[in-house]
Structures are given as C-alpha cells and as structure tokens.
Design brief:
- The protein has about 280 residues and is of the alpha/beta class.
- The protein has 9 helices and 16 strands.
- It has helices spanning about 20-25, 70-75, 110-120, 140-150, 165-175, 190-205, 235-240, 250-255, 260-275; strands at about 1-10, 15-20, 35, 45-55, 60-65, 80, 85-90, 100-105, 125-135, 150-155, 165, 185, 205-210, 225-230, 230-235, 240-245.
- Strands 6-1-2-5-4-3-7 form a 7-stranded antiparallel beta sheet. Strands 11-10-9-8-12-13-16 form a 7-stranded mixed beta sheet, with helices on both faces. The chain has a two-stranded antiparallel ribbon with strand order 14-15.
- Strand 1 (about 1-10) and strand 2 (about 15-20) form a beta hairpin.
- Helix 5 packs parallel to helix 6 (about 190-205) and helix 6 packs antiparallel against helix 8 (about 250-255).
- The chain is globular and about 55 Å long.
- The relative contact order is 0.14.
Length: about 280
C-alpha cells in the first residue's frame, strides 16, 4: 500500500498527489512512469512521474479526472493509501547537452515536461518552456517551471492570460525570430503533439514526442499503445514512451484513441451511479 502524503487540486479536474514510494523515488528518471491500481479490482492506469524526492521517499503524480479510474482516485484523500504503485517503467528520456532546448507542454503534458526539464537543466542546456492551456483558470505549475527554465511562455486559447493562441503559435514565433533551437520536446494531447511535429519538421528542428496519453497496461501485452514509428510497429510503454515526433504516424494514432470511447463513457456512467457520494463533476 502506498500512502498519500499530500493532495491538492491544481485546476479544474486536475489533482496533484504526493505519494510515499521510496524505492521508486530512488530510481525514477525523467520520462518514466508508474502503473497504479486504486483497488483490487481496479483498472491499471499509467501516470507519469512529474517529480520525485528521494530523501523524503516520495513521488509526485498529476491526475486529470477524465474517466472512471481517475475519478475514483480523486475520491482518495491525504492519509489514504493506493493499493498498487508499480515502477519506474518505460525508457528514461535521452538527455544530452544539445544547447537550447524548447520544452512544450499542453495541459497535463506538464507532468512529463517538468521532470524532463529538470534533467535538461542538470546537464547544462538553455531551456525555454512553453505551457499551453485553454484558459487562465486551468493554469498550474507556472511557478515551478519558472524555477527551472531560463524563460517561460504561457499561452491560453482565449487570451485570458499570457499569449493568446496555441503553443505552436508561440513556438513558431521563436523559430521565425531567428532564435537558435537545437531540440524540441513535447508532451500533451495527441493533436497538439502532431501540430508541433508538423511545425518543426518544416524548420528542420529535431523533435521528441512523449506518447504517454496512449498507454494502458504499461507492459506491452495489451497492444493498445501500438504505434507506427518510421514505418515500424512500436509499443509506447516498452519502446518509449518517447519517440522521434517526425517519424510517428499521428493520424493512425488518433484513430486508435477513438476506438473505445463508447465503452469508456459507459464505465464512467456506471461509476457515477455507484459512487455519487464522492463523485465530483
């Protein structure tokens, strides 16, 4: 059992959990994730390690309430324990001193981006972080990114905070300004990562995408995270989760993500019916 040391709501439908997991905290590297189960019959869900504190023996997870299992987890409070937390899993991010790195995170993509940003700075890179949200009320961890990065650019779709527009608008501004960019790392919704890859391909800038959003069981057995990269079939959980974004077949990937939408919605309705006391819509 893994005790929840601290829990707080970061934004609408987004919770931060600090969990006691000393062995994972000692070994976790940027880009890796854990698999959790909230109960004995619970679904296995992958969550990226957003931060770690080896001395305290804790890891930090961000959880967006989007389906049955994540809403169930949101019912847990400080002092409660999660049944299973397994990891660290996945290949760590390949990090070297490239020069100037731009890390692009959309919404919950800030979870992998934060841990990766730590690694990027540790080896001496210049770091720009672009954070994208739909509106001001959904912004979180801007202060933490400012502690890491040389510069932080926040975008909102509606212009309620920071730059109005998408993360790709901010990235294009940098590229068009002549700013030298040696590597782009992106994480977030799949359409956002596709847009980043399409943009940087035209400028010849190497780009890595974190395919965490498509993972399910984390062991390569279920096949749900199957993705074509450079014409070869890969599995995000065991071969990644990060890949050369210019080689990923994002169109195929987005089609697969739609396959089980009806069953996911059905499971969510059943959970709401049984757990209306702790459900937060």
């Amino acid at each position: 059992m893994f005790r929840i040391v601290k829990k707080r709501e970061l934004a609408e439908n987004v919770d931060e959990f600090i969990i006691e997991a000393p062995l994972i905290a000692q070994k976790a590297k940027p880009g890796q994730f854990v698999i959790i189960r909230v109960s004995a019959k619970g679904e296995r869900i992958p969550l990226t390690i957003a931060d770690k504190d080896p001395e305290a023996g804790t890891i930090t997870l961000m959880v967006q309430r989007v389906g049955k299992s994540t809403y169930h987890l949101s019912c847990f409070d400080e002092g409660n324990s999660i049944r299973d937390v397994v990891g660290p899993l996945g290949k760590p991010t390949h990090i070297e001193n490239w020069g100037h790195v731009v890390a692009v995170g959309g919404g919950l993509g800030l979870a992998p981006i934060h841990h990766i940003a730590q690694g990027v700075k540790e080896v001496g890179n210049e770091l720009t972080v672009i954070m994208g949200f739909r509106r001001k009320e959904l912004i979180f961890w801007e202060d933490r990114m400012e502690l890491l990065a040389d510069r932080v650019i926040v975008t909102t779709n509606d212009g309620s905070y920071g730059m109005k527009g998408l993360v790709t608008d901010a990235l294009k501004n940098l590229l068009d300004s002549g700013t030298k960019i040696d590597m782009v790392i992106c994480a977030g919704p799949v359409p956002m990562m596709k847009a980043v890859a399409d943009l940087t391909r035209n400028y010849g800038v190497p780009t890595v995408a974190s395919l965490n959003p498509i993972m399910v069981d984390g062991t390569g057995m279920c096949g749900a995270c199957r993705v074509t990269v450079g014409g070869e079939v890969k599995f995000a959980c065991v071969d990644g989760p990060e890949f050369d974004a210019h080689q990923v077949d994002f169109d195929e990937l987005m089609n697969r993500l739609r396959m089980f939408r009806e069953k996911e919605e059905e499971a969510m309705r059943e959970f709401q019916r049984k757990h209306c006391g702790c459900y937060r819509g």
